[in-house]
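I am still getting used to backbone structure tokens and would like to learn alongside you. Would you supply a protein for us yourself, any chain you care to pick? Start from the sequence, derive the backbone structure tokens from it, and show both lines together. Go ahead whenever you are ready, and we will take it from there.
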Amino acid sequence: MTDITRRLGAAPRERGSVCNNTCPDLFELSDGRFAVIGTDMTDELTGKLPADAGVASYERIVVITRETLLRAKDDIAKL
């Protein structure tokens, strides 16, 4: 079973969320993968991908804010 090991970056509330913590987030998983909470933009972006990229039927293109990723930068660098 895969578990969430830790959050990467600041918690949503630390980034100014006032919407019950329902904002983009990044997590490291116990099996070495990463989980992303963001906005599903698969339909909007699939046709705009480079020719050498694709989305499998079980995958989604998930968008997070720039701030979310930048606040996780230090944690990512430590991996």
User: Anything to note?
Assistant: The chain has a mean pLDDT of 92.
